[in-house]
Amino acid sequence: MTGWSASDIPDQRGRTAVVTGANSGIGLVAARELARRGARVILACRSEARGKEAEARIRREIPGAEVEFAPLDLADLVSVRQFAEAYEQPTLDLLVNNAGVMALPYGRTTDGFETQFGVNHLGHFALTGLLLPKLLDTPGARVVALSSAMHALANVDMGDLNSERRYRRWIAYARSKTANLLFVHELARRLAATGSEVIAAAAHPGYAATNLQAAGPRISGNRTAERVMEFGNRIIAQPAESGALPTLYAATASGVRPDDFIGPSVLMLRGAPARSWRARWTLDDVASERLWVASEQLTGVVAEGLKS
């Protein structure tokens, strides 16, 4: 794993990948590098304009790249179902649940969920469940969830999943990132119980310069906080190209194990991909099963073919 870079990505020809939030940041880099290695990549993005712009950008940089935009709004379960229904390929080799929001003012998704929990966890939970039959039918398939080192700030609150009692934007973000890790933990457990060889793993980018950090302050109109985030991106953060490496490693490297959590090797902030520390509560079998059942109830999506 030492010194692993995008040039170490195995040949992806003949493989199909879905990358959510592929129009910018980590998602765009991951989609581009998978396409560079020969994968057919579906750019699952909320904005048609930005999604098609990303598609054109990758095609310009990589002549002959097999990439295409497909609409997906993770804040709307109807859109999630429409995306899954429109997916016509007989198999799916790789699902990268990358899209996310960070530290937004309180809001709700179309379905009434707190925005960060709804987009970062529930939307991807539903998408994975709906696409699971394709993954189960594909030898060597993987699911990669994007979490964050910030998950360590808070465990999920099973009694207040939508932060209705009290909303603190960074705590809500941390809970959604813990939910990502609990989801991978439970998915890996259920896949193993079924005898499936599909690998479910998680990754985090460390501190990478993307549009994510400044979005919350910008929406809130907090120009000072926005400038602080932009300064951090310029001076401290590693570039998105480096931040995407843990995702690409989790998605393609041969040494990845079920329920692995891959992140930068230097203080979880930067450097080559390595297995990352995670809070002990993200490995709690009882909590992961409770969250799974609650997520099924909230989304109405039950993963077919998995044992409880």
Commentary on this structure:
The protein has ten helices and eight strands. It is α/β, with parallel strands linked by helices and 308 residues long. The protein has a single domain (11-205, 241-299), classed as 3-Layer(aba) Sandwich (Rossmann fold). Helix 4 links the parallel strand 4 and strand 5. Helix 6 (212-220) packs antiparallel against helix 7. It is globular. 52% of the residues are buried.
Q: Key terms for this structure?
A:
single chain; 308 residues; alpha/beta; Rossmann fold; 8-stranded mixed β-sheet; 43% helix; 14% strand; Oxidoreductase; oxidoreductase; SDR_fam; NAD(P)-bd_dom_sf
Architecture (CATH level 2) name = 3-Layer(aba) Sandwich
Question: What is the number of helical segments per DSSP (H or I, 4+ residues)?
Answer: 10
| Percent helix | 40-55%
- Rg from alpha-carbon coordinates: 18 Å
**CATH homology-level superfamily:** NAD(P)-binding Rossmann-like Domain
- Which spans have pLDDT < 50 for at least 5 consecutive residues? 213-218, 228-233
Distance between the termini: 33 Å
The coarse silhouette is globular
CATH topological fold name: Rossmann fold
Number of strands: 8
Mean pLDDT across all amino acids: 90
Domain Ketoreductase: 15-173
Protein name: Oxidoreductase
Pfam family, one: adh_short
InterPro entries: KR_dom, NAD(P)-bd_dom_sf, SDR_fam
Summarize the structure.
The protein is of the alpha/beta class and 308 residues long. The protein has helices spanning 25-36, 48-61, 77-86, 115-136, 169-194, 212-220, 223-235, 240-243, 245-252, 285-299, and strands at residues 16-20, 40-45, 66-71, 94-97, 142-146, 199-203, 261-266, 270-275. The chain has one domain (11-205, 241-299): 3-Layer(aba) Sandwich (Rossmann fold), CATH 3.40.50.720.
